[in-house]
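Contributing new records

If you add data, match the layout below exactly. Sequence lines come first and carry their own label; structure lines follow with theirs. Keep one chain per record. Anything else will be rejected by the validation script.
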Amino acid sequence: MGIDARIVVYATRKEDADKAVEAAYKKIAALEQIMSDYRAESELMRLCRQSGSGPVKVSPELYEVLNFAKVLSIRTNGAFDVTVGPLVQIWRKARKDKVLPSLDEIKKARAAVGYQNMVLNAKDRTVELKVPGMRLDLGGIAKGHAADAALRTIQSYGLSSALIEMGGDLRLGEAPPESDGWKITVPNAAGPGVSAEMVLKNCSLASSGDTEQFVEINGTRYSHVVDPKTGYGLSSRVQASVIGRNGFITDPISTALTVLDEAGRERLLRFYPGIKAFVKVAP
């Protein structure tokens, strides 16, 4: 999925840890083959190549992710939208070449973007991408889902104290031995721009913003997160960190919070009362 994955696990025997971690990485690899847009033959990319050709039956894992993505698209009025893939491709090239996309490029890509054109049928477990040229990008949700799956895999081997890091997002199991939890530095937890160390366990932490992935063109800094409505990488310098019960929720919500305005953020968080969100908006 274009990110590194790191696993930390505590066990009384090294061989137990090795088996659990190996199984967890295999699970991540399997989900990579389903959901990555970096792999031409992933299930996701095969689905995209059939855009405009009617409903396509998909695996339970892919359907689950796309179904929740659609729910979030509705709840955010399109601020979170996995059909943003055509625009993401343009901005990946922009970050590489350091050249602003043309208006024509953005207009053409936007014509293939819109969650309303991704139709899901739960009974048949099918997905239809109604517009030819649609391309899905699960960068804002798949890694959280994969981190959850990796932790469940480790737990199935009888190990409970583990940390999964994927692209900077964390999925935490039980606390390490003789401690109250994992000591994690959380951006903006002590106020906008002020990090704080928190002791966490059995939860997930996801962060989004332009700290790591961005491009500066003509004096403007554009994030790797693209606003589906404008077609441009975010330049508002919003950073969000979200703590919740699992990565499947925190990963996409952290992304959505960087795209939404203040009213939209408040509206979204009302759907998830257990979430803790820390947001910084640059002046």
